[in-house]
Amino acid sequence: MSRSSERGCVQVEVIQALTSGVRAIANGQTVGKIVRAQSLSPIVANKIEQWELMKLLIVEDNDRMRRLIRRTVADLAETIHECSDGAEALAAYATNQPDCVLMDIKMRKMDGITATRNICAAYPNARVIIVTDYDDDRLRHTAERAGACHYLVKENLLAIREVLSELFPGG
C-alpha cells in the first residue's frame, strides 16, 4: 500500500495507530503521520479504525531482560509501564490499568506467582502472562491457579508477540 504526499509516494510497510493519529512506517523509520484515513483505501481505513494499541506492564527484576522484553513488544503497545518487583506490581496495575501484564516469577521482595494472585484477586479481568526462565510443569500449574492466562519461557521471547496477538487480535 502507498500514500501520496507533496513529495511523492511512500511505500508503507507498517501503520501504527496512536491516540494522536496514525504513523506510517517504512524500513523501520517513521515516514509520516497519516491524519486522514479517508485518503487510504476503505479496507485499510477500516482496519485503522479498529486498531487500538494496548497498554502493557512489564514486571521483571533484571534490567537487561526488562529492556529486551520491552523491545520485543514495543511496536504492539501504545504505552509500556515497568516495575522491578512483584511487590510493586499491584500498585502499578492499579495506577496504569494495563491490558496485559508480562510477569517474571523469581524476584527479590515478592515473587511473580504471588503478585499474579494479588492482581487477579483485585482485578478479576486482569490478563497476566508469566515470562520466566523455568520450564517447569509444577510452576506452570501454580501460575495457572494464581490466575495467569499464559506461561512462557524466556528462551523464546517472540512467543510473547504470538500470545499478545492471540489475546488482542486487533493490535
List the helices and strands and how they pair.
Blueprint: E1 2-5, E2 8-11, E3 14-18, E4 21-26, E5 29-34, H1 42-50, E6 54-59, H2 63-73, E7 77-83, H3 86-96, E8 100-103, H4 112-122, E9 128-132, H5 137-146, E10 150-153, H6 158-167
Parallel strand pairs: 6-7, 6-8, 8-9, 9-10
Antiparallel strand pairs: 1-2, 3-4, 4-5
Helix pairs in contact: 3-4, 4-5
Question: Mind explaining what this structure looks like?
Answer:
It is a single chain. The chain is an alpha/beta fold and 171 residues long. It folds into 2 domains: 2-50, no CATH class; 54-167, Rossmann fold (3-Layer(aba) Sandwich), CATH 3.40.50.2300. It is 36% helix and 30% strand. It has helices spanning 42-50, 63-73, 86-96, 112-122, 137-146, 158-167, and strands at residues 2-5, 8-11, 14-18, 21-26, 29-34, 54-59, 77-83, 100-103, 128-132, 150-153. The strands form 3 sheets. It has a 5-stranded parallel beta sheet with strand order 7-6-8-9-10, sandwiched between helices. Helix 3 (86-96) packs parallel to helix 4 (112-122) and helix 4 (112-122) packs parallel to helix 5 (137-146). The longest helix is centred in the middle third of the chain and has 11 residues, at 63-73. Mean pLDDT is 78; it is low at 1-38 and 45-51.
